[in-house]
Amino acid sequence: MKGWSIDKVVEFLATGFYSGLSPYAPGTVGTLLGAILLWIAFKFGMGLVGFPLVFIVFVVGTFLSHHAENFFGEKDAPQIVVDEFAGLLVAMYNLPITMLIPAFVLFRVFDILKPPPIRNLQKFHGGVGIMLDDILAGLIANLLIQFILHFA
What is the pLDDT of residues 59-115, one digit of tens each? Predict the structure, then answer.
């Protein structure tokens, strides 16, 4: 693409197609875009979110967020929302589309409040550090939903 440098591609993807550039709640805006894309994927026949998708988004997201952190010059810059995409995927792991709103809400609550042990993962640096707290927030949200569905 003419005029597109590697930095621009990284910025475009790491910011969730620029959704992370929102001046208000960029993490929530990025997660909302991820939820819309996930809903569309479900409507076009994607099955449940599985490990291969989560793994690919985690690996690519780690690379993107590491480079975007250098690009923005700030540790875990708020513009980087690829980690929110990954966390939402984990929150939706093996769940039907009907659980998208509860997964979205619980993931955002755990990601914003960052209770221990989520907060403890912020000590990691680079792309891994950016991604891990969101992965754990998504995991906790998923386990809570799975527990409620199983025992309700």
Answer: 999 999 999 999 999 999 999 999 999 999 999 999 999 999 999 999 999 999 999
Distance (Å, whole) CA 40 – CA 42: 5
| Structure tokens, 65 | 């967020």
DSSP string, the chain: -TT--HHHHHHHHHTTTTGGG-SS-HHHHHHHHHHHHHHHHHHTT--SB-HHHHHHHHHHHHHHHHHHHHHHTSTT-TT--HHHHHHHHHHTBT--GGGHHHHHHHHHHHHHH--TTTGGGGGS-HHHHHHHHHHHHHHHHHHHHHHHHHH-
